[in-house]
Design goal:
Shape: globular
Number of strands: 17
Structural class: alpha/beta
CATH superfamily of one domain: NADH-ubiquinone oxidoreductase 51kDa subunit
Largest sheet: 6 strands, mixed
CATH class of one domain: Alpha Beta
Strand order of the largest sheet: 1-14-13-17-15-16
């Protein structure tokens, strides 16, 4: 199979050399940990502990608030200090469980299972009870994704190993360090879909990962490794599905409508831990990087650890940054403080000595109608025109010109020679239209 890709996209500087060759270090937290009850799409989790309770590592401290929701487990042993609103990375105040770690990391007992003896319903229940969500950033409860209306119509289960965001290397380290868990997790997922093929999709800038996973799947009749052309946003769900299957989906469709299930590599490892070992989501791999960081590296952190503690473990700042981002530079968001907790969906802390976005905004000029944003757009819409509609509040024209199909990847802003913040205008208009729809 040749290199697979989609039409459009851009080639930002990768920046992965800062941390990709740094083996993952386990970071055990100290003191207070904060567990927001909204770490996923859907209803917030409901606390099942009270202030003063003693908890163990791996103990469920909040149950799912509905079918589209997810339970939360404590990543440490200690005492419940408070249940109160706490600030989260997005700036919102979210009801949270605060636990004072006792430093002992005493664990609850986990119920391992013989996967071959489990029914499909039992597999999904173990995924649900473990609090597995989309850990690539979306936070969609995985048990819901694994429960489509017609499982027989699922033809592809795709493991997203593209990691196309610049600077991020956590998925790369997982694929190098724990490839067996990825394959086993995918095997478990394939048990749910009799007619599906498993595909592990990896960009060709990760040849070591491709070689390892090809070796592990050489004798797997239902699993293959697909090599992707390195290009942003190759890891976007719609772009990945098209690259691998040549099937297209839009904003009104789910991947299952195209016969696909897509999950990030960390999510697939979490499925393995949940189903095979009976372990809930407590840890994840995280990249601390950027030219402002003393020692860019990868950590396996305990959920609820603060961003500041992770930065300190990476040696702190080499130079005071102008911009601090949760996630990658293309789709991440700026942090106002490091004294906020990590969650299931936080994948990276990026600290940059120069704020490229602010600098570009100061230098922005009029659109020159060059069409580069159209060439770069993976959805083949017209960002320059859509941004003008957004600036003028013209919602009707925005929708008519398919503005709601924007995947908010930022390729248009990146490529624009006039340095116009096209993606920001479009994203804001999308939010306004979605808010109007909810009111109706």
């Amino acid at each position: 199979m040749g290199l697979l890709t989609f039409k459009g996209g851009v080639h930002p500087a990768e920046g992965k050399e800062l941390s990709k060759d740094k083996p993952t270090r386990v970071l055990q937290p100290k003191g207070e940990l904060v567990f927001p009850l909204s770490q996923h799409i859907g209803a917030p989790a409901k606390p099942i502990v009270t202030v003063g309770d003693t908890v163990l590592r791996g103990q469920i401290i909040a149950e799912a608030g509905g079918f589209v929701s997810s339970p939360i487990a404590s990543s440490v042993s200690g005492t419940v200090k408070a249940i109160e609103p706490r600030r989260v990375p997005t700036g919102d105040m979210v009801n949270s469980i605060v636990i004072e770690s006792d430093g002992a990391f005493r664990e609850t007992e986990y119920q391992a299972a013989d996967v071959d003896a489990l029914s499909n319903d039992e597999i999904i229940a173990r995924v649900q009870n473990a609090g597995v969500v989309g850990m690539g950033g979306a936070g969609f409860p995985t048990h819901v994704k694994l429960s489509p209306k017609d499982p027989g119509k699922i033809e592809f289960v795709i493991v997203n190993g593209a990691e196309c965001e610049p600077y991020l290397t956590s998925d790369y380290r997982i694929m190098l360090d724990e490839p067996e868990k990825i394959v086993e997790g995918l095997r478990i997922m394939l048990k749910l879909f009799d007619n599906a093929k498993g595909i592990i999709a990896i960009e060709n800038n990760k040849p070591e990962c491709i070689a390892k996973l090809k070796e592990l799947t050489a004798n797997e009749s239902r699993i293959e490794v697909a090599e992707l052309l390195t290009k942003y946003p190759q890891g976007g769900e719609r772009q990945l599905i098209y690259a691998v299957t040549k099937r297209s989906i839009n904003s009104s469709m789910l991947p299952a409508d195209a016969g696909c299930i897509v999950d990030n590599v960390e999510t697939v490892v979490s499925v393995y831990n949940a189903v095979k070992l009976g372990k809930p989501v407590m840890n994840r791999v995280f990249t601390v990087t950027g030219d402002a960081v003393n020692d860019p590296c990868n950590f396996e952190f305990y959920m609820g650890t603060s961003f500041k503690e992770l930065l300190d473990a990476a040696g702190g700042f080499r130079e005071q940054p102008e911009k601090i981002i949760s996630g990658g530079p293309m789709m991440g968001f700026a942090l106002f403080s490091l004294d906020v907790p990590t969650t299931k969906t936080t994948s990276a802390l990026l600290c940059m000595t120069r704020d490229e976005v602010a600098a570009a905004d100061l230098e922005a000029t009029a659109c020159i109608n060059c069409g580069r944003c159209v060439e770069a757009c993976p959805e083949q819409i017209v960002p320059s025109k859509l941004s003008k509609f957004a600036q003028h509040g013209d919602k009707e024209s925005f929708e008519k010109w398919h503005g709601m199909e924007c995947v908010e990847c930022g390729s248009c802003s990146f490529i624009c020679p006039a340095k116009r913040q096209l993606a920001q205008y479009i994203k804001t208009m999308k939010k306004q239209i979605l808010a109007d729809r909810r009111k109706k």
